[in-house]
Amino acid sequence: MLTDLKIQRLKVENGKTKRYADRDGLVLEVRASGKKVFIFRFQWDKKPQTITCGQYPSFTLAEARNLAVVHRDSINKGIDPRLKNVDGNQTELTFEVVAEQWFQKYKGTWKEFACNRHSKSLKRDIYPYIAEKPIDEVTKADLLQIIQFHEMLGHHDVAHRIFARLKAIFEYALGASLTSNYPFIGLHKALVPKPKAINQPAINSTEAHEMLDRIKKSSATRINKLYIELLAHLFTRPKELRLAKWNEFDFHLAEWTIPKERMKAGLQHWVPLSPQVLKLLKELRMLTGFTPYLFNSPTAKTHQPISETSSRKLLHLLGYKNRHTLHGFRSLCSSVLHEKGHFRSEAIEAQLSHKIQGVRGIYLRADFKVERRELMNWYSTWLTEEIQQTMVLSS
C-alpha cells in the first residue's frame, strides 16, 4: 500500500512510466515527465479499463482512495464509472477515457504492429496535450496544436496519421453517443498536403549481377551478406525475411511458410526454395542454426534479428544510395520475370504476395504453386549465372 512518505520518495526510473498499486484498484502512475497521477483500474465487459483520478499532491492520497471506493461501488451496482457518477447522472468524459474505449474496441481487428503504433502514438503524441480535457471541450485549435508540431518538423506523414487517428476516435465517440462535439469540419484544409508516395528506387536487370558481386566481395559480416543475397533470390518484403525463424522452413519439402502475422495482407504466404537458396540457407544454418532467427544479431546479448539499418548502410557504402533499396529487389525481380521469363503475370504477382485488383481478383482463387516453384528456380538460376559470368569477366 501507498503512504504519503512513499509517494514523495518515488522517482522516475530509467525515464520510463511505472505504476505502484494501493488498494481497491487504485494505483499511482509515476510518469516519465515526473508527474504522479492516481489511476483507477477495473474490468468492464471482461476488458481492462482505467480512469484518471487526479495528480498528486493537489489530489491527495485520501481523496484518491475515497474516489476509488465510489467507483468500485458504482461497478458493484452495474454502473460504468466512466460514464456515470453514483447518483446516476452523466459525468464529463475525458478524451483519454474515450480514446481508451476506442482502442480496446478495435485492437482485436489490428495487426500487432498497428496496435503498438496506435498505443505509442496516443501516449506520445496526443495524451500530453488533451488526455484530461473533457471530450466535449476539445477544440479545433487543440487538434491543430497536436498536428502542427509534427508539420513544423517536416513529419507530414506522421501528421496525417495522427489526424486520421483523432478523427477515428471522435467518430467512434459520436457513434457511441459519448459526445456531440466534432471539431473536424474543414480541419483537413489546414493541413499541409500529404507528399506523394515515391516508389522505392531499384536497379535494372543489367546492374543486378554487378551489385551482388560487390556485396559478396565487401567486408560486411557474413550474416548481413547472406541476408541481402537471400533477399535477392526470395524477393519478399525485407521485414518478412529479416524476422524469419528456422521453424518456418521445411528443407525436405524445400519451402518456407511465412506466418500471416508478418504479412502485409494478413494471409499466410508460401515460398518455394530453389537449390541455390537451400545452399545459402545451409551455410547460414552453420552460423545461426542454434538460435531462433535466421539472421540472429551476432552482437546482441539476447536472441534478436539483425537491424535493417546495417543492411541498408551496406548498400549505401557500395554506392547504391538513392539507386537501390532492400525493397527494390521486388521491383528488380518483377521486371526480370515479366521481361525475360515465360511465366504468367498472375503467378508472378502471387509469388510477390500482391492482390489482383478488381472483380477478377475477387474470383481468382488459383495459387499457381507448380508454376511458382518453376519461376523461383528459373530466377535463382538467372541470378546465379549472371553473377558467375561477372566474376569470370572481372578475374
Defining traits:
four-stranded antiparallel beta sheet; three-stranded antiparallel beta sheet; alpha+beta
Protein architecture, described:
The protein is an alpha+beta fold and 395 residues long. It is built from 15 helices and seven strands. The strands form two sheets. Strands 1-2-3-4 form a four-stranded antiparallel beta sheet. A three-stranded antiparallel beta sheet has the order 5-6-7. Strand 3 and strand 4 form a beta hairpin. Helix 3 packs across helix 6. The longest helix has 26 residues. The radius of gyration is 27 Å and the shape is elongated. It starts with a helix and ends with a helix.
Helix content: 40-55%
Major sheet description:
4 strands, antiparallel
Series of H and E elements: HEEEEHHHHHHHHEEEHHHHHH
What is the molecular shape? elongated
In short:
The protein has helices at about 5-10, 60-75, 95-105, 110-130, 140-150, 155-175, 205-215, 220-235, 240, 275-290, 310-315, 330-340, 345-350, 360-365, 370-395; strands at about 20, 25-30, 35-45, 45-55, 250, 255-260, 270.
Please render the helix and strand layout as text:
Elements: H1 4-9, E1 18-21, E2 26-30, E3 36-44, E4 47-56, H2 61-76, H3 95-106, H4 112-130, H5 140-152, H6 156-175, H7 205-217, H8 222-234, H9 238-242, E5 249-250, E6 255-258, E7 269-272, H10 275-288, H11 308-317, H12 328-340, H13 345-351, H14 358-363, H15 369-394
Antiparallel strand pairs: 1-2, 2-3, 3-4, 5-6, 6-7
Helix pairs in contact: 3-4, 3-6, 5-6, 7-15, 8-10, 13-15
